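Appendix B. Extra example for self-study. Work through it before the problem class; the solution is given directly after the inputs so you can check yourself.
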Amino acid sequence: MIPVRAEGLLREFADAGVLAPADVHVALRLGRLGSEQREPVLLAAALAVRGVRAGSVCVDLATVADSVVPDEDAPPVELAWPAEWTALEDSPVVAVGVDAPWRPLRLVDGLLYLDRYWQQEQLVRRELDERAARPAPAVDLTGLDVLFDGPAPDLQRLATAVAAGRWVSVITGGPGTGKTHTVARLLKVLLDQPGPPPRIALAAPTGKAAARLQESVLEQAAAVGLPLDLTASTLHRLLGWRPDSRSRFRHDAGNHLPYDVVVVDESSMVSLTMMARLLEALRPTARLVLVGDPDQLTPVDAGAVLSDLVHRPAADGAGAGLPDDARDAVDLDADERRQLRNGVVRLRVSQRYGPGIAGLAEAVRKGEADRVLELLDTGAELTLEPDTAALEERIRASAAELRSAAESGDAERCLALLGRHRLLCAHQRGPAGVATWNDRVGRLIGAVPGEWPPGAPLLITANDYENELWNGDTGVVVRTDDGLRAAFLRGTGPDLVPLSRLSAVHPAHALTVHRSQGSQFEEVAVLLPPASSPLLTRELLYTAVTRASRSVRIVGSEESVRAAIGRQVVRASGLRRRMDPPGGAQGTRGARSPLA
Ligand SMILES: Nc1ncnc2c1ncn2[C@@H]1O[C@H](COP(=O)(O)OP(=O)(O)OP(=O)(O)O)[C@@H](O)[C@H]1O
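Solution. C-alpha cells for the complete assembly:
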C-alpha cells in the first residue's frame, strides 16, 4: 500500500515499484523533522533507505539511476530522475563531508548514507587503517618449512606468513582450497612463538558454520599439533548477547574480548554492523584473520565487508614488511599483488573438485558467459537442460535409494546418500522455488503432505541449542527399533534425534542457494528462474556451482545463464574508496561527482 500523503517524485517512484512504503515513510518523516520539503532531497533520502533494504550501506547518486530497475508488475513509466542533486548540499537534514557535524543523512564523495551506516563504516575504516599503520607483530616464521613442504610457490604458505605478520589479514578462496588447512597451520605458528601462548577464538556468523569450523580445525589438530580443546562459536556468542539489544553486545570498545587471535570463517556472510561490533571489541593488539569466499552470496543484512576488503585500493606505504615468501610468489597477477599489500591472499586450487567444476566456477566468477555455456555443453558432468524431465528421473532414483536405506535403519548410508544429490533453487516461492519443488518432489515419491516418512530429507530452520542443531543443518528420517528418528551428521558418525524433539523443521528435497552456502554435494542440480528474476546473479550461480564436487546440472535457459553471469550483486559502500578529510589528497578522488 502506498502512503496517501506521498506526492510528486516520491509517489511516482513508489508507483513504479522502486520505493517501498517504508522508504517513503522514513523520507517524509525526516523531511518533517528537519523542515526539508525539496523533492530531490526527499527522494534521495528514500533511496538511501531503499539501498539499506537491498543490502547497500549507502546510495551512490552518480549511478543510482542506472542501477534502479522499475517493478515488472508496475505500468511502464519513464522515471523523472532529478537532473542534479545539488539541493542536498545545503539541506538541513544532510551533513556534507567527513567532518561535518551530525545530521540524519551524510553525503561524502557522491555517496549518501543514513547516519548509522556512515558511523559503522567509519568505525570499520578507522579500525582497519589503524591496525594497518601499526608496526607489524614480530613473528618467527622458521616453522613454515616443516608445516609446508610442498612445491614452491605455495599460496597456503604465503597466506600463513601474511596472516602471522599482520594485525588484520584475509584468506580467501573457493570451497576446498585449503583455507582451514592454512588456518590450522597459522595457529600452530602462533602457538609456537616464544612467550605465553596466544588466546585463540574461532568464530563464524552462523551456528552451522561455527560447528563446521570447529570440526575441520579439530580434524587437522592432531596432524599439526594443535591443542584439542579449541572450540568455535557464533560471532553473536563470542561478542556476548545482551537481552536489551539486538545490535549491541557485552564485549565492545569499553570491554574488549580477551583474545590475542580471532579467526572468523565464512566471513562473506558478515554484515557491516557485525564487522563494526567485532572490530571495536578487539583489543588493539589482537590479530584478526578473516576467512571466506568473497565471490559467494552476500550477507542478508547491509554490507559486503569481505568483498570490500578484497577490492580496496592498497593503502599508501602498504606492503612494507611483506614476508620473504611474497618475493617468491612469482605467479601473482597485478591484482593479487595489490591485494597482498592489503593482507589478502586468495588460495586457488581446490582439493575437493576436479578440473571440470573448477573451470566452470572460474568462468562464472570471471563473468565469461560464452565459456560457461561451452563448458555446459561438453559432457555428462556439466549440463544445461531446458526442461526438468531428466532432473525428475534423477530425483526419483535418489529418493528410492534413500527410502530403502532409511527403511532398513542404515543411518550412515542415508547421510552419505543425502550428500550425494541436491536440488537448489534461487527462489523460495514461485514455479521454480523451493516450496513448489518440495511439494512436487514429495508427490513424485508418493509422500503424504505433513508426514515425515523414512528417507525424507529435512532442514533445521532455527538454532536448537538443546539438540546442538543449527539453522541450516540438514538430516534425514530413518526407521529405527525405537521408532522414526532424524539422523544428522556429527563428526564422522550419525546422531539420532526423535522427531518429536524437533521444532523448527522443513522438508529439504530442495534448498535455496542461500541455504546451501557452506554445504557440499557430489551432484548439484540448479533450477534457474526466468532471466528477468532479480535474484539471478553471478554470485548466486557461482555459489550454486561450487556446492558440487562431481557434477552440475543446470536446468533453465541459455538466456537465464547469461542473465545470471551478467548481473553482479552491487552493494554500494564507501569502504572500497579512500576518503580523507577535506583538504586531504583524496577529497573527491575517483568519484564522478553528481553534484557538479
Ligand atoms: N596442502 C594440502 N595438502 C594436503 N591436503 C590438503 C592441502 N590443502 C587442503 N587439503 C585438504 O583438502 C581438503 C579441503 O581443505 P580445507 O577444508 O582446508 O578447505 P577450505 O577452503 O577450508 O574448504 P571450505 O570452503 O569448505 O571451508 C581437506 O581435506 C584438507 O585436508
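Self-check: Residues 156 and 182 are 6 Å apart (CA to CA). If your reasoning did not lead you there, revisit section 3.
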